[in-house]
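FIELD: query
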Amino acid sequence: MVDQHDITKGLPFADNHFDGVYHSHVLEHLEPSDGEKLLDECYRVLRPGGVLRIVVPNLEQIATLYLNYHREAWAGDEGAAINYNWMKLELLDQLVRSDSGGAMGRYMAGDEIKNSGFVRSRVGDEFSRCQDMGQGGFIDKARELTIREKTSARLTTAKQGFTRWVIRKLMGKDALRSFDEGLFRNQGEIHRWMYDRYSLKELCIARGFTDFKVQSATDSSIADYESFELDSEDGNIRKPDSLFVECKKNSAASMMKAA
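FIELD: result
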């Protein structure tokens, strides 16, 4: 069962409720202050000794590859220059894009990609999905909507259409572009921050977590984790560009607080 909830408003669960909490490619989409609140909530709902597993884009790895390929490209390596251009997109595009899919999506949907193997090794199945949809198709991603969702979408579209008309009439095309970009950037697709192992460790320890550890896509202190196929399936990593970390709720501190 899947329940929809605005995680910036807290988690709708009781204290000390779960043995494990998992979120993948979520934290980077939140403002840093909202990310801190989410980790506080994860701590609250975990039982003493419970495990928090976090998956985010690996800023350290992205930055390292960017610098390495930049150095080789500057030295005249044409192949490295192609990979450098991709790593620059990986580093920046989802922070600055103003339309769905952005430059990364358009690149992956292209007909002739000279470094397709490298890109696939970075983003996994996402590359195949963009290739299947083709140029432009990644923008109109097909999704099934419930009757309630369709009604809500129609009402939202009607309100936005009227608002856009008013803005264009009163303030002109530049203001309308700013309005459209603001709407897009608040839909949750962009990255509002990025993390590496050091910054995540500091963030988790500041919230009271202990036993911080960098893991692989398949290794975990959660029993039989690989069988859940959250980060990998049939040996294939879902998000190869990821940093996988785990930490635990401080059982000693929780017991002292309860006492």
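FIELD: remark
The mean pLDDT is 89.
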